[in-house]
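Protocol step 4 of 6: structure prediction from sequence.
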Amino acid sequence: MTAHQRTRRPARRLALTGLAATAALLLAACGSGGTDQGKAASASPSATAGSPAANPAPGPVADADVTFAQMMIPHHQQALEMAKLADGRAADPEVKTLAGAIEQAQDPEIRRMRSWLTAWGKPQAAGSMPGMDHGSGAMDHGGSGHGSGMSGMMSDADMKQLAAAKGRDFDRKFASMMIDHHQGAIDMAKKEQRQGKNPAARKLADDVIRNQAAEITQMKAILGRL
């Protein structure tokens, strides 16, 4: 081996060592960048949690929309109470089926309206208002509920009478009371149509009017044959 060859080998080793060091630095830089990107990606969902896409009822919100949800929730809750009384009391198969349909429709609507109020930063209840007491005269069956904004709500006495009824007597009371209750919900929904601004709330108002009007027609037919 010549002296020239012995001189070139150390130089080649130094060159290879330099290349390896450079490659290691590049890999470290890429790894660091990937970590930063991963952090940014993991942070993005929380950053968008408050975006309009997370709002179950996006768009403009008027006072009427808030009031509609706050008032319709207890209205629906009483309809559910009435429907649950049919179990073990109703005799007519169609009344039993109708009570089940009311539960299936209105329970999800309650959850939906609660999610709206949460997204809007509004309380779940409207607070102390005239006629909000189920036992007050303003809430009486066939009373002045229309003026309170909670039209069609049953009084405590009405609910006790319904709970005490059995068989065909229950069927008649249930259909008669639910007709008035549904009509009250339709009145509230029509007010939302006139004054509300939120698309989701207005859509629910449309559904309430269409579905509960159809059930009123069905219950009138039930009363006609009982």
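Step 5 (inspection) to follow. Residues 21-51, 128-149 have pLDDT under 50 and may be disordered.
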